[in-house]
Design brief:
alpha/beta; Rossmann fold; eight-stranded mixed β-sheet; about 25% helix
Length: about 200
């Protein structure tokens, strides 16, 4: 069975050469009624995941519309949809520093799926969520274990021909996406990838 990955972001541009097919999606914002990405961030995240896991079923859960800002109501609506659709992995290339939000996330974390998020923000700080931090010395197909359920990954998305790595998009969003993609590639042996630094080793 193919792994089902929900990307909670700005949507995805289906058919983009780095993404290909999108299996479905949901507009949690309620603003546009579609999961088309009008910012580009979600598509870049999806491309990074697809580069590692070409056979994954990708679902776009739009929580951002015209900017990379949302609220807990929208975010929880997107999470509820993803869990109702029985997603295997939820990718959160986002995070909140507000500790009051932890209580809103916790009941949903217990409902299933593997959550992958930035390690220094919620939901990545919640027990049971795989938290990811940046290590620019790693290649995109490597992970380094930092602590239990805490890993470091490369902050770079897939390469763009002719564009130096340092001038490409980069940051925690893509470290999370790389970790998600590597995990999806190893499905269903999902714990194996997080027991060593080099998943090809």
């Amino acid at each position: 069975m193919r792994v089902r990955v929900a990307i909670l972001d700005s949507g995805v541009h289906a058919g983009h050469p780095h993404v290909g097919e999108v299996a479905g999606g949901f507009d949690a914002t309620g603003l546009s009624g579609d999961f088309l990405d009008r910012i580009g961030h979600g598509t870049a995240v999806a491309g990074a995941i697809r580069s590692h896991a070409p056979d994954a079923e990708i679902y776009a859960v739009k929580i951002f519309e015209r900017s990379l800002r949302t609220n807990m109501e929208i975010l929880l609506r997107g999470i509820a949809w993803a869990l109702e659709q029985r997603m295997d992995i939820l990718n959160f290339s986002l995070g909140t520093q507000n500790p009051e939000h932890a209580g809103a996330f916790e009941p949903w974390v217990k409902k299933g799926a593997i959550w992958v998020s930035a390690a220094d923000a919620y939901p990545g700080l919640i027990e049971g969520v795989i938290g990811v931090e940046i290590d620019a010395t790693l290649e995109r197909d490597q992970l380094r274990q930092v602590a239990e359920n805490r890993y470091a990954a490369s902050p770079y998305p897939r390469e763009i021909p002719g564009v130096p790595r340092e001038k490409n998009l980069q940051g925690i969003s893509f470290a999370v996406a790389n970790a998600t993609g590597l995990l999806a590639a190893k499905w269903p042996e999902r714990q194996v990838i997080f027991s060593r630094t080099d998943p090809k080793g």
